[in-house]
Write a structure and sequence with these properties.
The protein is of the alpha+beta class and 306 residues long. It is built from 15 helices and 7 strands. It is 43% helix and 10% strand. The chain is globular.
Length: 306
């Protein structure tokens, strides 16, 4: 846990007093992965929170000029060049997008979802990349739902998870608005990837706005064969699929787990075992930092070096 002194030091650094509900959250739980993770943003979109950033990461040391990987401090330092000055990234989804706590010109304490695919990291955030998620941090937390509650009223999604794929595809085709069709397709695709349902994912692939998110979801879920088929289904045959502010590859992502079979698939398909992300971080260095001994041994055997 953190104390009030550490929180006040961070507030001085960012020159902003955090909302009381968010301060209470950090002092009580200091981030983490929620059991209920789904929230609605915009008119049609349902997104998922993978992780709320802790003020200070649990991996490695901390001190002046050092910010543990994945901590609120490190995320703020690494993203402030391309995010609006009046927004603080407090959480992430599985595809390199952020939930931003707003102040200044935005409603103070409000939360927005930032879609990096729309904005482009080095071009600055556009208004189109920001979707309202909640009027306050507390409202966001209270609105989170279980994954099984995802799009409960959408026929296409319900048909897909019920196993009637042809009917689900037909329902998507019959949607009036393209933005809604693509949003629902994204949700079906993400669910399919997370559940290892490769045929469902391929069926909605033509409408997916960001197939990369789905591949990362399959990697995170540990579905090795699904990952293989998803990568082979791509026209680009890109086996790295870098994304997020740290430019992590799929191998960087799986290196924080012990899912050796997924790592094996990625390397068999041509992933660079010594790929470098921002800060010259490699999959091996991530495996070591997260204490994944089995993954570390596998990567070394596959040719990873310090």
């Amino acid at each position: 846990m953190i104390n009030a002194h550490a929180l006040e030091a961070f507030e001085r650094e960012i020159r902003y007093s955090l909302p009381l509900d968010y301060r209470e959250f950090l002092l009580t739980v200091n981030g983490g992965s929620p059991n209920r993770c789904l929230f609605v943003c915009g008119e049609f979109t349902v997104e998922s929170v993978v992780n709320f950033f802790p003020l200070r990461g649990i991996i490695g040391a901390s001190g002046p000029g050092f910010y543990a990987e994945g901590s609120l401090e490190s995320i703020w330092h690494s993203t402030r060049e391309f995010l609006p000055e009046n927004m603080l990234p407090v959480a992430e989804d599985g595809g390199g997008n952020f939930l931003l706590l707003c102040w200044g010109d935005q409603p103070a304490g409000g939360v927005h979802f930032f879609d990096h695919e729309i904005a482009g990291y080095r071009e600055g955030a556009s208004e189109e990349a920001l979707l309202p998620a909640a009027h306050s941090f507390r409202e966001l937390i209270e609105s989170l739902e279980d994954e099984d509650a995802n799009l409960p009223t959408n026929p296409a999604f319900q048909l897909a998870i019920g196993g009637d794929l042809p009917a689900a595809v037909e329902a998507l085709k019959n949607m009036r608005f393209e933005v809604e069709r693509r949003s629902v397709a994204d949700q079906i695709g993400y669910w399919a990837a997370s559940s290892g349902k490769i045929h469902t994912w391929i069926a909605v692939l033509p409408w997916l706005r960001n197939p990369t998110n789905c591949v990362h979801a399959a990697v995170a879920a540990g579905h090795a064969e699904t990952v293989r088929q998803m990568l082979l289904a791509q026209t680009t045959r890109d086996v790295e699929l870098r994304q997020g502010p740290f430019d992590y590859t799929l191998l960087h992502e799986v290196a924080t787990t012990e899912n050796v079979e997924v790592a094996r698939v990625l390397i068999e398909l041509g992933a660079n075992v010594n790929a470098k992300a921002q800060g010259k971080v490699t999959p091996l260095s991530r495996a070591k930092a997260f204490g994944r001994s089995e993954m570390e041994r596998f990567l070394r055997k596959a040719g990873a070096t310090e």
